[in-house]
Amino acid sequence: MNEVTVRRPGAGSWLTLIGCEAKMVVRDTAGLVVPIGLPLLILVMNAAAAGDQEVAGGRSALDLFVLPLVFTIVLATIGIVNMPSFLAYYRRSGVLRRLAVTPASPAMVLVAQLVVSLAQVLVGIGLAYAVAVVGFGARPPAHVGMALAVVGLSVAAMYGLGLIVASVAPTPNSAVAIGLIAFFALGAVGGLFGGTASLPEPVARAASWLPFGATVEALSSAWAGTSVDASNLAGLAITAVVGATVAALLFRWN
User: How far apart are CA 216 and CA 207, in angstroms?
Assistant: First the structure.
């Protein structure tokens, strides 16, 4: 009897899978347009007036308020709404179950989807920033390194929440519904519909710990060149850790 040698997927397999995931994302018109088009629309609607309002350190309201909000919307829609719907679809359609009996682990799909959605984040943020700079004279953050660190920490937090959504959602439609509820709930207390100054004091304090509000506040501080509040960074870190832990316990491949 001939022995069959089983080899783990190599770099070529990874690239093929990432390419397939990219095609799936591109074909999902709503999932591609909304995380990029909606933030751009909000940016354009607010940039003209905000760009003329100097707030502090030579930075305008566009720099300190509009751009942090726009970047956060990109991160939240992709991490909490888009990515979980794809994973829920793969589980529902049996893709993950079939991969479990092949040398390719179902975790490969998860990693490939994370890579592709990260590329989508870079496109969304990069396009919004380019439009803000070229069209409205936006200025870079005073603390570039801190701004990049906040974005990275926010990605981990938003994806942690997204993995929880993917873990508990039985169908792709339910994943979208749960993700949208989480997005608007977090956004409502995090500045999506206006500044948090108008919110009750306990809610405003909580917002600085929750991922949406924490990202907006931390990016605003990085742009202004002031120190980022510890509660913002702690809230993002805690969300990332809790999200990954809960998802690891609850996520079902079948």
Answer: 10
